Structure formats: structure tokens, C-alpha cells
Automatic annotation (TrEMBL):
CDD domains: FHA. Keywords: Membrane, Transmembrane, Transmembrane helix. Pfam families: FHA. This is FHA domain-containing protein. The lineage of its organism: Bacteria, Bacillati, Bacillota, Negativicutes, Selenomonadales. It comes from the Bacteria. The chain crosses the membrane at residues 6-27. The keyword Membrane applies.
């Protein structure tokens, strides 16, 4: 009779220890996965953002307004931003060297892209003529007419 009672009791103790070991192994794997994920690619959602400020977005900072009277010194870029003299543009530059529909900045492919819209006086990026769609990087200098912008992201 003692063997019939001893075997289930022993089996119960072994299963309890196995369960405790599995729980600790599970916790170890979760902590390791979190550590590796945070170490490899910190999420922007976890970065410090002071309360009351808008989230960091791409923008154009006016470096030189030339002969134009612009409304602001910084223009935030949404999914797209059109630039020109036409009142339907997002950024209106009242300058004779700027076409009615001069350029467009679009966000896709995980970045921002600048396109010249066949303007008369062309668009320049870092002193180079923009012939095709080009990717924008933080610190790029964009010249449209007599106005110079700095792209910030």
C-alpha cells in the first residue's frame, strides 16, 4: 500500500517542480526578447517627448526668404506639400522666380521625396538641379526661386 501512495505523491512533486521551471523559463524568454528589441531598435514611441509639444514631424525651415514675404519661418510637411505661387498650394511663395506650381514634397517609401513640377526656374537640392524625384535627408538645402529652405526631420 505505501508504494501506491508514494508513486502519485512523487509524481505530483516532480510535476510541480517542472511547472515552476517552465514558468521561470517563460519569464526569462520574455525578458530576453524585450531586452534585445529595446537594444536593437528603440521605438520612437518610447523616446522622450515633452508634454504640450507636437510630435516630431518633417519641416522646412526658412534660411533665406529672398524678396518674398513668407507667413512663417517653419512649415510642417504632411503627406504631401505643394509649393508655388498659386493660391491652391500648401506653401505659397509670391516671387516672380517661382512657378505657379513649382515643386512637391511627398512622404512615401519610409521617407520624403522632392519633385520639381516642370518649373521655369527649376528647383535645387544642395546646389544640384533636381531633374527627377530625389530623396530628402535631414539637413538638405532646398532652393526654390529666391527662397532657401533647410529640410529637417
Amino acid at each position: 500500500m505505501p508504494i501506491k501512495v508514494l508513486i502519485p505523491a512523487l509524481l505530483s512533486i516532480i510535476l510541480q517542480y517542472c511547472l515552476v521551471v517552465l514558468i521561470y523559463y517563460f519569464l526569462f524568454r520574455i525578458i530576453k526578447m524585450l531586452y534585445l528589441e529595446l537594444k536593437a531598435d528603440p521605438s520612437p514611441a518610447l523616446s522622450f517627448q515633452p508634454a504640450g509639444l507636437p510630435p516630431q514631424r518633417a519641416s522646412l525651415l526658412v534660411l533665406d526668404s529672398g524678396s518674398s514675404n513668407l507667413q512663417a519661418f517653419r512649415y510642417y510637411i504632411g503627406e504631401t506639400m505643394t509649393v508655388g505661387r498659386n493660391s491652391s498650394n500648401d506653401l505659397i511663395i509670391d516671387d516672380g522666380f517661382v512657378s505657379y506650381d513649382h515643386a512637391c514634397i511627398s512622404q512615401y517609401k519610409a521617407g520624403y521625396w522632392l519633385t520639381d513640377l516642370n518649373s521655369t526656374n527649376r528647383t535645387y537640392l544642395n546646389g544640384q538641379l533636381v531633374a527627377d524625384e530625389v530623396a530628402l535627408h535631414h539637413g538638405d538645402i532646398i532652393k526654390i526661386g529666391t527662397v532657401t529652405f533647410k529640410f529637417e526631420r
